Amino acid sequence: MDKKILEIKNLKTYFFTDNGIVKAVDGVDIHVNEGETLGIVGESGSGKSVTSLSIMGLLNDTSGKVVDGKIEFQGRNLVDLKEEDMRKIRGNDIAMIFQEPMTSLNPVLRIGKQISEAIRLHLKYDKARAKEHTIEMLKLVGIPRAENIYSEFPFQLSGGMRQRVMIAMAMACNPKLLIADEPTTALDVTIQAQILDLMKKLKKDVGTAIMFVTHDLGVVAEMCDRVVVMYAGRVVERGDVYQIFENPKHPYTKGLLKSVPVLRQKVERLASIPGNVPSPKNMPKGCKFAPRCKNVFDKCWEEEPPFYNVEENHSSKCWLCE
Amino acid sequence: MAKPLLEVKNLKKYFPVKKGILNKKEKFVRAVDNVSFEIYNGETLGLVGESGCGKSTTGRMLLKLIEPTDGQIIFQGKDISKMTDDEIRPLRKDIQMIFQDPYASLNPRMTVGEIIAEPLIVHNMYKDSEEMKKRIHELLGMVGLSSYHSVRYPHEFSGGQRQRIGIARALAAKPKLIIADEPVSALDVSIQSQVLNLMQDLQRDLDLTYLFIAHDLSVVEHISDRVGVMYLGKIVEITDKDTLYDNPLHPYTQALLSAVPIPNPRIKKKRIILEGNIPSPLNPPRGCAFHTRCKHAKDICKKIAPEFKEVEDRHFTACHLY
């Protein structure tokens, strides 16, 4: 039996704006097993990034708030933790890599200082040992001239190198869970290949569980063991990577898979999902995908479907699976 | 064979970089360095490459939004590269552009109708305002929007809809050639396929010719008839789409294609992982620009830049291997 390292139950994260409440995440259940890579797929506005920020407790500076639900990590509910206790977990047990490596590194601090800060804080290493460990981490993520890079600034590095620094920083305290939010989206394909390769190697060597948030289905197919598909603040389908790609059940997952052009597939015309993601202000009453769904029927407009198991470990939030 | 609609010969763009106040000696970023290609009537030429390879600069020079340093741009038999602004203006009717960012390329203080009317007014195409209004409504219909949208402002639209407005504006003056610079890369996948399908429909119905600039190899394969691959300001390979994707000759094209993640978890590709980063165009390597990252690099590659030549029937590449 797989051991769950993180379990999110009925998470609701709402943003309280001047124009009303935006229900960015509305009743999400997700779990991550030890040592696995879980992919969270969805388009902009699906709530995938807000989910990861909720786990990290990084909503304090926004109008967002977790209004309901639990985030259980190693037997503790992260939602209830005080900022002080959360700080001990953040960067230590759970680390995060962001999409934009330039904006998530401090531009006026030297690379070495930024990484060793976390090491000294969490691992309680002294200065010399922290430096040694930092350089070791930089080497681990494939940064050449690690000793020199230690005292350089982020702007002196290329995008790919900055993302490596981010990964070195995230991995420095041996986290049990790594949340990677679109870590390769801002990178060129050949650099993306390098970073994905590095993440696979780290996962194999260190055994960290990874929650991989992305919109790129190619990256998911390559990296993940299990997949969660999100739409309009909800999970709509979950299963292992083969189930999702080979036997998708939710019309949204099906549509998404068909609308990506695939190398050498030679389709004349791409399938597309009509319409747009509904705005949080006028969410449909029943199934949130109903206005764009080609299989829609009366019940879909009336009532939101629950999850139905379609095969082992594979479930879909759709009336068709009833 | 038919005459090309547009012919580009040895096009160059060197951006000067001044260093210091007293240092008179200028350095140059060779953004585009000796690029030649043709575009035939009714086809789509795809131009792929990673960031900084010069693909956007090339596209902008064709419209003379950037003044070329050297080389010829022959459009319908006329060399436009040396023309003054006044001479080029009537020709801009025939060459239009679609931009990447649908948020930045539409004036937020103009209504959609005003945005689309602008090219019609500039080119003095309609004397009668009622007729112009009819044309605007017709254009909105062509891109899948409705007439009542013409009185709204860009911020009221989603990303996909804004890109449709950008396309309507580009179509307004009835152009022959459309330069699309990353038209779908800012869009979600389900919206991306809508816009790609729209562009294909418009091409068929209006007999358009496209230069499609993008970094996504799957998207470029889907929409193009021929594809050119750029690296560090040069085209390294150009041929028809099937030949390029089935039988890439240049080691860079091979690496680029192998780096694309495929949305199928059963496919475990053997990747060619390129070492290092793209060299700076300020100080490009001598000889073949790719030799620093090429596993086939020989002595000659470090000294002499390979000639761009026809290796197979209509399959051009610049590599010493052939």
UniProtKB/TrEMBL annotation, chain A:
- Note the Gene3D superfamilies from the entry: P-loop containing nucleotide triphosphate hydrolases
| Protein name stated in the entry | Peptide/nickel transport system ATP-binding protein
Against CDD domains, the record matches this protein to: ABC_NikE_OppD_transporters (cd03257)
Q: Could you tell me which SUPFAM superfamilies the record lists for this protein?
A: P-loop containing nucleoside triphosphate hydrolases
| GO biological process: one example | peptide transport
Look up the record and report any one GO term of the cellular component aspect.
Answer: plasma membrane
> Which NCBIfam families does its entry note?
oligo_HPY
Membrane topology, from the record: Peripheral membrane protein
GO MF annotation terms? ATP binding; ATP hydrolysis activity
Keywords of this protein's UniProt record, alphabetized?
ATP-binding, Cell membrane, Membrane, Nucleotide-binding, Transport
Where is it chiefly localized?
Answer: membrane
Native source species: Paramaledivibacter caminithermalis (strain DSM 15212 / CIP 107654 / DViRD3) (Clostridium caminithermale)
Q: Taking every annotated instance into account, which residue ranges of this chain make up the domain ABC transporter?
A: 6-257
Q: Name the Pfam families on file.
A: ABC_tran, oligo_HPY
Location in the cell reads: Cell membrane
* Top-level taxon of the source organism: Bacteria
Fetch the InterPro entries from UniProt: AAA+_ATPase (IPR003593), ABC_Ni/Peptide_Import (IPR050388), ABC_transporter-like_ATP-bd (IPR003439), ABC_transporter-like_CS (IPR017871), Oligopep_ABC_C (IPR013563), P-loop_NTPase (IPR027417)
Listed SMART domains: AAA
What's this protein's family per the entry?
Answer: Belongs to the ABC transporter superfamily.
Automatic annotation (TrEMBL), chain B:
For this protein, the record's SMART domains field holds: AAA
- Keyword ATP-binding among record annotations: yes
Top-level taxon in the UniProt lineage: Bacteria
GO molecular function ontology, one term from the record: ATP hydrolysis activity
The UniProt keyword set, sorted, is: ATP-binding, Nucleotide-binding, Transport
Q: Which residues form the ABC transporter domain?
A: 6-257
Sorted alphabetically, the Gene Ontology BP terms of this entry are: peptide transport; transmembrane transport
Q: Which Gene3D superfamilies match?
A: P-loop containing nucleotide triphosphate hydrolases (3.40.50.300)
Family named by the database record: Belongs to the ABC transporter superfamily.
Record protein name field: Oligopeptide transport system ATP-binding protein
- Give the organism the record lists: Paramaledivibacter caminithermalis (strain DSM 15212 / CIP 107654 / DViRD3)
